[in-house]
Amino acid sequence: MNKVNHFKENREQLVVLSILITFLIPKSATGGKYSVWEETVPPLAGPPPHSHTDEEVFYVLEGEFEFMLNGAMIPAQPGSVIHVPSNDLHTYRNTGNCAGKLLTMTNPGKLEDYFRAVGKAVTLAADIPDLNVAPDLAKLDAAKAIALAPEYGITFHL
Fold first, then answer.
1. Opening angle at CA 113, ends 40 and 67, nearest 5
2. Are 118 and 144 contacting, i.e. CB atoms less than 8 angstroms apart?
3. Is residue 158 assigned to a domain?
4. What pLDDT, on the 0 to 100 scale, is given for residue 139?
């Protein structure tokens, strides 16, 4: 898959650590009630275990994922739906060998603000890393993401 195919000119996009976030329905369009975005996740990538005040629903569009929800491991393939209640400990990882895609909905959408605070805005296709290659975790700088997390109701369980 060519990384240019990931660029959507008419939608706000951010690279958050190694994941491409494409906003489909921003919370500004819902009166702050919810937010919907697509996540393009490189192989072996995913956030560290965390909890937050937003309720989340993930729908696997493409690829193979493994979710952890309150200690239970849940394999997920296209068509799988994972519901994460507010403040529940969770994470996910793309277990496939190419980019995977998730459709994510959050309520009320505070995560959207967090992503804007810690992510890098995509303005050109060249701003998007190769999403079919596992990220070099040693090169990811998570300090800002960890430092700002409490301001957005997020707790990392490292």
1. 40
2. yes
3. no
4. 83
Segments forming the whole domain that contains residue 62: 3-153
> How many distinct structural domains can be found in the chain?
1
pTM above 0.90, yes or no: yes
Q: What are 103-142's pLDDT values in tens digits?
A: 999 999 899 999 999 999 999 999 999 999 999 988 888 8
10 assigned to some structural domain: yes
pLDDT tens digits for 55-71?
Answer: 999 999 999 999 999 99
pLDDT at 88: 98
Residue 45 burial by Cβ neighbours in a 10 Å radius (0-12, 13-18, 19+): buried
- Residues present in the chain in total: 158
Q: Is the torsion defined by CA of 84, 76, 19, 123 positive or negative?
A: negative
Residue 123 within a domain: yes
Query: What CATH number is given to the structural domain containing 116?
Result: 2.60.120.10
Q: Are 62 and 20 in contact (CB under 8 A)?
A: no
Alpha helices in the chain (DSSP H): 110-118, 143-148
130 domain-assigned: yes
